[in-house]
# Entry
Amino acid sequence: MNFELITKKNNALTDGTIPQRKVIANKLLNVINYYYEKQGSSFKIAINELLETMNMTVNSGKSKEMLADGISMLQQPIQLRNFQYKGRGIKWISAPFLSKATIFTDDKLYVHIELTDEILEGLKQKQHFTPIDIKISNQFKTKYGIVLWEMYLRYKNQRRQGGGDYVTYQEKTLDELNQKFATNYKKPSEMKRCINRGLNEIKKITGKTILVNYEKDIKKFHFFWEIEEKSYKNDFKLFKKYMIENHKNEYLTNVTFESGVGKVTCKIVIDEFGYLADASNNIGITNQVANEIWKYLFKHQNELSCFKYKQDTLF
# Structure
């Protein structure tokens, strides 16, 4: 069973720009943010594990060169305004998200990551996030695709005046997109070719259709797409609530994962109290594992047995 890798990326990072942007910088930022959420602002990680999480070839000189390149880009400063740090107000700060990355000679298989405390505190106080699926982000090959995809995730269900109930949109000027992509195009037609390249990649990887027009009267690119219907099928919290209310004591699926005793296969059900349980009684399911299984069930809901045929209860 491969669990999802989801990171809650602060919108200040999602909206920010990276000088000399390359797709590796976006991927690395998402992965570092994921490990920061798990381990804090200072941690060490095996270089090969970091590359593997980014879906890159391990034990590869080229991969390590790209990783070093991405680290350098993330050490460019970002700007935050108006927050508190250790009891003192900060009006404005310019500092890198990634403060330091070190490989020691006596620990050369690992990289030690340190993030900037003031920036982290400022981001925490902003408290607005965009969930990013790292496994999806890792599939992008162009900076245009990954940047536009994260823009879509940031605004995908935000209601806009004139958009109606089913469509929303986001507008960007040529200068704003040049900043986002680290390009220097002078003509909208030149930028449009890059945008189309990114939108085609999004369609291929995710199946999502995003359309774009250049509005000459306001001199802005107009991106628009369908709002996702908020139902249990595409909202995690609603899915979990729906399953507990409607599918207790029904076999859902088998999952296999590593435990303290090795690989274990569980026959997953929701018990009468609303908790995930193993009907084959192989192993108890901890809260941490249960959270990961819920994410798996949500992602693979169309494959669950309870949606394929009616069945007798197991308890």
